[in-house]
Amino acid sequence: MRQIVFLRQIDIPLKKQIQDLIRHLGYDFTIFGDLEKHIGEDVLECSINGFQIDFIVLFDGANIVLSVTELQWIKPDLRNQDTAISFVCAKDLPTSVCIGLILVALIDLSNALVYDIDNKMKYTREILITETLEFLSELDKQTITLSQEREKQTKISNKKNSTFRSRLKNIFQ
């Protein structure tokens, strides 16, 4: 999924503002590095529920981005948005959750317009929250499954070690 955000350059928030807003919404979210920098001044490293990820945030002028033929359908929505932001990242659940939450923060803090380029769709805050909750739910399921699998492997390993120790103990008594 390719997502692009349009907003006014003057309204680009600091990383701290984004982190604070997302935490205020009730998420276990952290942005690493200098929180006094604006988003996009370097690689963005963050974590959600203990999953640490990083991705590249690309900036360009809105007019330059809109010169691409496939994006002409967005042009009528723009008024005074002079900056376009796109995200370059792996496609996995923790990354999707982090980007979804950052997009919500950009809407709330900067009145950003968010688009899914592949589906030619404009995102609303509500759609992003719904998708993010779905991704979080799936992430929680995977985390529980992985945790259960690790616990099972630990029990098997402990049982093997215990049996081996018992045998050794019996030999040397």
Report on this model:
By secondary structure, the chain is of the alpha+beta class. The chain has one domain (3-140). It has four helices and seven strands; from the N terminus they run E-H-E-E-E-H-E-H-E-E-H. Strands 2-3-4-5-1-6-7 form a seven-stranded antiparallel sheet. A hairpin with a 4-residue loop joins strand 6 (113-116) and strand 7 (121-123). The chain starts with a strand and ends with a helix. The model has no long low-confidence stretch (mean pLDDT 84).
Give structural attributes.
4 helices, 7 strands, 46% helix, seven-stranded antiparallel beta sheet, single chain
Contiguous uncertain segments of 5+ residues: none
Total domain count: 1
State the helical fraction. 40-55%
The biggest beta sheet is recorded as: 7 strands, antiparallel
Strands in their spatial order, largest beta sheet:
2-3-4-5-1-6-7
Number of helices: 4
State the end-to-end distance. 65 Å
3D shape: elongated
What series of H and E elements makes up the topology? EHEEEHEHEEH
Q: How large a portion of the residues is in β-strands, by DSSP E?
A: 15-25%
| Gyration radius over CA | 22 Å
Number of strands: 7
The helix-and-strand class reads alpha+beta
Mean pLDDT: 84
